[in-house]
Design a protein that fits this description.
InterPro entries: Sphingomy_SMPD4. It holds the Pfam family mit_SMPDase. It is a single-pass membrane protein. By secondary structure, this protein is an all-alpha fold. Among the domains are: 104 residues, no CATH class; 103 residues, no CATH class. It has 21 helices and five strands. The strands form two sheets. It has a three-stranded antiparallel β-sheet with strand order 1-4-3. A two-stranded antiparallel sheet has the order 2-5. The protein is globular, with a radius of gyration of 25 Å.
Length: 542
């Protein structure tokens, strides 16, 4: 297809729309590659929203797009190969994104399609805690009702990509498709490997013009650097939406702006469907269920968690210890240290709590279980993986993981209690259900893990001698000035304080904690033993 360079963008868009109906998929993609290469950003700007929607489908789920969640290489090898090449992080579509990024274009994204807690917060004129939304909320014209986010091209592309996991309903027959074989799942893996590398740095964007590389086109209005935040987000951090503050980020942070954006978009779109307030309301037996994730959704989140463990644990040896935390550390290394505790932990905890409480009592819960167990075992994804001992038994979990266990205490203890409660209501005669109990028992039986969890509980249950006057330092609103590196809060060295602040940030300061090694949980374990069917002696022996 030959397009004269001087034609109007509207005509270019009309021509592409016509071709999308009349031309085969391979030819359309070939034409798009040429259009992206030949046309200036001014004209490509007009086709970008349509092209993104035509690939990932519409936000209301009516338009299917390329149906990446069902596209498999072994079923449709030609279409699969073309789509993966076009959407590859180093491919033509991302080249278009960077071409538009360099010109500072913005695209409206309707707030109404954001996850429930985010949408509610913005509609109430309260700025969400994630820096992803700062400086982006657009007020409607006088008399208008719709609120929009003004997103740069990379953000807009990733919002659509991430949300298509949720907005696009599976087609008939999709239940028999293995998620890990589909184009969408494999693209998630490629994007994670590219933008959250475990080795080296994030690769710069390819040049959008012939002859030599171009620098990474960072947003001209930098996003809120994640380093501006304290360790935890609470309701005290809420600020009115009119107080969106500009940020003068350190230029060095531009090196990883795509990495930060990708992680925040994935976490917000896939995990942020429950707030602490909503979670507390859901404890009522009369509460109506809200967002319900699918098994496919959970499998993709597990992929994200496994990669994040590998990413976070790929810190160079000299940068692992807190004493090495200095201004000489690169932004990418800082981000590796901050990614899980600052962005993932709270939203994942609420997501898992909801799944444990509302997922059907059948074998499909295995997907949720494995996601949880993957998060609990970061040592499985570290460069020096836990090796098996010579007699086949798991080796002792190293003490180097004690801080992770302590600072994720509730994900070990409270969710363990939640699992016991589920197991007692489950048909354990079913081998698949019995196997889930065995899987949990095997993970928690790893040598030294129980001791580390018990130590964490002891730290939490210590008398609060100095917490009240320290609390102000932790739970105040973040500052919005300073550079990317200088805005990190002082390291908290009091281990007991770290554990307490973790629990309070996830459950609130009036939480009622049930010790995992206390009498109540021992009673639950005894009940489970009584309910254990004799049909599975092989599991008991193991």
């Amino acid at each position: 297809m030959a397009f004269p360079h001087m034609q109007q963008p509207s005509f270019l868009l009309a021509s592409l729309k016509s071709d999308s109906i009349n031309k085969p998929f391979a030819q359309r993609c070939q034409d798009l590659v040429k259009v992206i290469e030949d046309f200036p950003a001014k004209e490509l700007h007009a086709i970008f929203p349509w092209l993104v929607e035509s690939i990932f489908g519409s936000l209301d789920g009516i338009l299917v797009g390329w149906n990446l969640r069902c596209l498999q290489g072994r079923v449709s090898p030609v279409e699969y190969s073309i789509a993966m090449e076009f959407l590859d992080p180093g491919g033509p579509m991302m080249k278009l994104v960077y071409k538009l990024q360099a010109e500072d274009y913005k695209f409206d994204f309707p707030v109404s399609y954001l996850p429930g807690p985010v949408k509610a917060s913005i509609q109430e004129r309260v700025l969400p805690d994630s820096p992803l939304y700062h400086n982006k909320v657009q007020f409607p014209p006088t008399g208008g009702l719709s609120l929009n986010l003004a997103l740069n091209p990379f953000e807009y592309y990733m919002f659509f990509f991430a949300l298509s996991l949720i907005t696009q309903k599976p087609l008939p027959g999709a239940l028999h498709i293995r998620t890990s074989d589909c184009a969408y799942f494999i693209l998630v893996d490629r994007y994670l490997s590219w933008f959250l590398p475990t080795e080296g740095s994030v690769l710069p964007p390819l040049s959008s013009s012939p002859g030599g590389p171009s620098p990474s086109p960072a947003p001209r209005t930098p996003a809120m650097p994640f380093a501006s935040y304290g360790l935890h987000h609470t309701s005290l951090l809420k600020r009115h939406i009119s107080h969106q503050t500009s940020v003068n980020a350190d230029p060095a942070s531009h090196e990883i702006w795509r990495s930060e954006t990708l992680l925040q978009v994935f976490v917000e779109m896939w995990l942020h469907h429950y707030s602490l307030e909503m979670y507390q309301k859901m404890q009522s037996p009369h509460a109506k269920e809200s967002f319900t994730p699918t098994e496919e959704h959970v499998l993709v989140v597990r992929l994200l968690l496994k990669h994040l463990h590998a990413f976070s644990n790929s810190l160079k040896p000299e940068q692992v210890s807190p004493s090495a935390h200095s201004h000489a550390t690169s932004p990418l290394e800082e981000f590796k240290r901050a990614a899980i505790p600052r962005f993932v932990q709270q939203k994942l905890y609420l997501f898992l709590q909801h799944c444990f409480g509302h997922w059907p009592l059948d074998a499909s819960f295995r997907a949720v279980l494995e996601m949880w167990l993957s998060y609990l075992q970061p040592w499985r994804y570290a460069p020096e993986k836990q090796a098996q001992s010579s007699d086949g038994q798991a080796r002792c979990v190293s003490e180097r993981w004690a801080p992770f266990v302590q600072e994720n205490l509730l994900l070990y203890t409270k969710l363990f209690v939640g699992f016991l409660s589920r197991a007692l209501r489950t048909d354990l005669v079913s081998p698949k259900n019995a196997l889930m109990v065995f899987r949990v028992a095997k993970v928690f039986a790893q040598p030294n893990l129980a001791e580390m969890i018990q130590k964490g509980e002891q730290l939490f249950l210590e008398p609060e001698l100095v917490i009240p006057h320290r609390q102000h330092r932790l739970f105040t609103a973040p500052t919005f000035t300073g550079s990317f590196l200088s805005s990190w809060p002082p390291a908290v060295t009091d281990t007991s304080f770290k554990v307490k602040s973790h629990v309070y940030s996830l459950e609130g300061q009036d939480c009622k904690y049930t010790p995992m090694f206390g009498p109540e949980v021992r009673t639950l374990v005894s009940e489970l033993e009584l309910h254990w069917p004799q049909d599975h002696p092989e599991l008991l022996e193991q």
